[in-house]
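Is it possible to get an amino acid sequence alongside its tokenized fold?
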Amino acid sequence: MDDYPLLNLFWTMLWLFLWIMWFFLLFKIITDIFRDHSLSGWGKAGWLIFVLILPFLGVFVYLIARGKSMTEREMKQMQENEAAFKQYVQQAAGPGGGGSADELHKLAALKDKGDITQEEFDRAKAKLLA
């Protein structure tokens, strides 16, 4: 370890970090190119070729030209994901949202009306409480 000073280790780690961040930015831009519905197929192909053939220039030009709309598309995607998650949670929770107490109340009402027998009520109650 004596032949590789600490400063060289720092510079190596810095360059590795910058290299990883560069690839992260490149993949983010490529994802944004395919996510954009306002671009035609030829536009997407042109940007993709520009970003892959001349990566530094292509990425910087893309960020300057389409950076604001890139942010808007990202925000729209996040809002759609959040709305889908909320819808899934509401669907999974059920329309009543009362949980097992509400279900037990419904079972008791069915038993009182005579729609289900005592054995069916006990099985359903045990299933709900398990």
